Amino acid sequence: MARKHTQRIPGRQASKTTLLIVGEGPDDQAFIKHMNQQFRVENPSVKPTIEKQSGGSPGNIITNAARKYGHLPFDQRLLVLDSDIPITQQDYDKARKHGYRIILWAPVCLEGALLDVLGEKVDDDDAAASLKRRLHPLLDGTHTESAAYRNVFPKVVLEQATNESVVSVKNALLQEPA
């Protein structure tokens, strides 16, 4: 009996989930890109677009992201913001209206979350600037470049991380339940 051969249709690719992740600034974008580089082999069915805003209040970041990316067709949208400035219910509602889910870096900010991953003590009342001064010297280069995070946050460290915000971003990239 002859084998049945399946034909592959040229130019046709498997469907990918399109994911938009918007960070508060260039640090967020660099770290999330680094995280994506560590895990993209594990889930090639996700096509993330990782962008940044230029800081400001959560409301401004949400408004700007909605304006800038609202016309683009993404399956999922995620905003990753620092938790040092409280987000109002109105801001959460605005984000939801535009299809965004919000993840807050905790404690305090991205740097606080990353120091927590490294096992360093971080208090909720620490200033973001002091956390930046503690983390940035540990990095291998400029904190706005994804390569700077490579040696301090290799895949094994990210896999073992228990920080809720870091785990939430990782789960979004891997399309695992939050």
Overview of the molecule:
The chain has 178 residues and is an alpha/beta fold. The chain has one domain (17-174): Rossmann fold, CATH 3.40.50. The chain is 38% helix and 15% strand. The protein is built from seven helices and four strands; from the N terminus they run βαβαβαβαααα. It has helices spanning 26-39, 58-69, 89-97, 110-117, 128-135, 155-160, 164-174; strands at 17-23, 46-52, 76-82, 100-105. A four-stranded parallel beta sheet has the order 2-1-3-4, with helices on both faces. Strand 3, helix 3 (89-97) and strand 4 form a beta-alpha-beta unit. Helix 1 (26-39) packs across helix 7 (164-174), helix 2 (58-69) runs parallel beside helix 3 and helix 4 (110-117) crosses helix 5 (128-135). It is globular.
User: What class would the helix/strand composition place it in?
Assistant: alpha/beta
Instruction: Give the mean pLDDT.
Output: 91
Individual helix count: 7
The backbone outline, from C-alpha atoms, is: globular
Strands of the largest sheet, in order across it? 2-1-3-4
* CATH top level assignment: Alpha Beta
Low-confidence stretches: 3-9
Enter the CATH topology name: Rossmann fold
**What distance separates the N and C termini?**
49 Å
Strand segment count: 4
Secondary structure: helix percent: 25-40%
Radius of gyration: 18 Å
Tell me about the biggest sheet?
4 strands, parallel
Task: Output the helix-strand order.
Answer: EHEHEHEHHHH
CATH-defined architecture? 3-Layer(aba) Sandwich
Strand proportion, as a percent range, falls in 15-25%
